[in-house]
Design a protein that fits this description.
The protein has about 130 residues and is α+β, with helices and mostly antiparallel strands. The protein is built from four helices and nine strands. It has one domain (about 1-125): DNA Polymerase III, Chain A, domain 2 (Roll), CATH 3.10.150. The strands form three sheets. It has a four-stranded antiparallel sheet. A three-stranded antiparallel sheet has the order 1-8-9, with no helix packed on it. A two-stranded antiparallel ribbon has the order 2-3.
Length: about 130
């Protein structure tokens, strides 16, 4: 099992605030949408959360500050070899998963709470 922490910062608060406002969310690897509020949980070059909604201003998630790295999994602040080993320990494959976050969870994040994600071979658990 791997436990990842997304620490409260302005970008995470902004992502949570915007997620609360939106009504339609994309599901990964399909053209389907859901009304359940949530974010994308992504592992590729690092591990991060990002918006699952379409930004109103047409900017990319990075331009909007909607990409928030887990503590210790940011490629800008980690040695590339060490980061590869750490991300590989979480999952051998890159992925993008939709994680549902209730309004209560999102409100706690807007007010300064962290998001914790626990990953096993078969499950993803989220606390906020």
């Amino acid at each position: 099992m791997s436990k990842l922490t997304f620490r409260s910062n302005n970008d995470l608060k902004s992502l949570a605030k915007e997620t609360l406002k939106h009504k339609k969310f994309n599901l990964p690897y399909t053209k389907k949408t859901t009304s359940k509020k949530g974010m994308f949980f992504v592992k590729d070059e690092g591990i991060y959360l990002m918006n699952a909604f379409k930004a109103d201003n047409g900017k990319t998630p990075r331009e909007n500050g909607f990409v928030v790295y887990a503590s210790g999994y940011n490629p800008k602040t980690q040695d590339a070899d060490l980061l590869w080993d750490k991300t590989y320990a979480v999952s051998r494959d890159d992925f993008g998963e939709f994680i549902h976050l209730s309004d209560d969870m999102l409100t706690r994040v807007v007010n300064g709470g962290n998001i914790s994600v626990e990953v096993t071979e078969t499950t993803i658990g989220v606390r906020a």
